[in-house]
Design a protein that fits this description.
The structure holds 2 protein chains of 2 kinds. Chain A is mainly beta. Chain A has no helices and 9 strands. The chains are: A mainly beta, B mainly beta.
Amino acid sequence: QSALTQPASVSGSPGQSITISCTGTSGDVGSYNLVSWYQHHPGKAPKFMIYDVTKRPPGVSDRFSGSKSGNTASLTISGLQGEDEADYYCCSYADSSPYVFGGGTKLTVL
Amino acid sequence: QVQLQESGPGLVKPSETLSLTCTVSGVSISRSYYWSWIRQPPGKGLEWIGYVFYSGSTKYNPSLQSRVSISVDTSKSQFSLNLSSVTAADTAIYFCARGGSAWYSDSWGQGTLVTVSS
């Protein structure tokens, strides 16, 4: 199965909002409301941020929100902070596999 | 609070079998969770390898299915990965993770780097 498509990088200034897109197909993102997002600071354990498109696990800041339209899911981070600088990965359930990851997006806080 | 810790050789020769173990603490491995292996090749994104359900049933990434085996040892609170016939393309950081459902992982280990080289 092909990886989901994410922009390689995004950037924003502290306090701003940014959105990371995650584009799949009708065989994954488009058919299932089973998209999750992970934050990864290299060298550390990835952190679970969003599941089932819009749900936040306990302890995750409400500055992080998820959405979906058609074959594209999105992660929005509002009130950007320096600690948000990390790699972000989307993941979707798919016809062929329970996990199909995106290629990852590097977020830079300017 | 659940903790996961990967362990195993950091260097494996080409054509041999890569074997890793994940030790789980803070929660019973016998509860109804999905225990996954996920990897990240250098400079690349994440790739799901497969999972074992607490009951022992498994599901694998179709692209790796012919070479992968994942098992659980409830007596040791561990689950393991075997990946056979490795090549340099299998060089990666290998993460173990717990999933509350079959399509996401809510807790991850820090990962262990495995290099395939002679």
